[in-house]
Amino acid sequence: MKPRDPARTVSLRAAQTADRIAIGELLAANRLPVAEAGGAPIRFWVAELAGQVIGTIALESYADQGLLRSLCVDARVRGQGIGQALVETVETEAASAGIVRLVLLTETAERFFTDLGYDAVDRATVAGALRASPLFATLCPASAVCLGKTLHFHHAEPSP
User: Fold this and answer.
1) H helices then E strands: how many in the chain?
2) Domain contains 155
3) Reading across the β-sheet that carries 65-73, which strands appear in turn?
4) Above 80 in pLDDT, residue 6?
5) Does residue 45 form part of some domain?
6) Are 118 and 104 in contact (CB under 8 A)?
7) In a domain, 143, yes or no
8) How far apart (Å, rounded) are the C-alpha atoms in residues 135 and 51?
9) How far apart are CA 117 and CA 43, in angstroms?
10) Residue 129 half-sphere exposure toward CB, CA atoms < 13 A
11) Taking the C-alpha atoms of 81, 120, 60 and 1 in order, what is their torsion angle to the nearest 10 degrees?
12) 129 is in which domain, residue-wise?
């Protein structure tokens, strides 16, 4: 993926321990929850440009359900497809891990996610473990829109 300046390339990768501070600063600067998951496996990915973390996204896993969270792209590089690439990365990783449904909460990015195939979901119908997560229970306000997407697995056809 290339931002508007073709000499600079954005790379996407799994976050490392060394990225923790940069991820926290990016989330805090954009008023997103920085609290960790309460016991659920959570993985972060980052978008990096010239050695700087410019975007992040996370996946909290609950059996075959996943909570997509913490999507954030630095305001200086928004509108260049970085957020979409981060979402696609998580969807691919989630499907590979056996997650069949992703759910998210948002106050500001409903249209962004509906454009990517996410549909409105009644919070009361979300699987119990997801609903009990800290993000649902305390970190996101009741006014946040709940969206979901069923992931489709693309299995290779077996050889004859």
Assistant:
1) 5, 7
2) no
3) 10-14, 42-49, 52-62, 65-73, 101-106, 145-150, 119-120
4) no
5) yes
6) yes
7) yes
8) 30
9) 22
10) 14
11) -10
12) 10-150
pLDDT tens profile 15-34: 999 999 999 999 999 888 77
- Phi (first) and psi of residue 50, to 5 degrees: 50, 40
CB 144 within 8 A of CB 136: no
Check if the beta carbon of residue 131 is closer than 8 Å to that of residue 123. yes
Question: 124: domain CATH number?
Answer: 3.40.630.30
The 8 Å CB, 24+ separation contacts for 22-29 are: 22/46, 22/52, 22/53, 23/53, 23/56, 23/70, 26/53, 26/54, 26/55, 26/56, 26/72, 26/74, 27/56, 27/70, 27/72
Residue 156 lies in a domain: no
For the entire predicted model, the pTM comes to 0.86
Q: How many domains does the chain have?
A: 1
**Residue 10 phi/psi, 5° resolution?**
-90, 135
2 pLDDT exceeds 90?
A: no
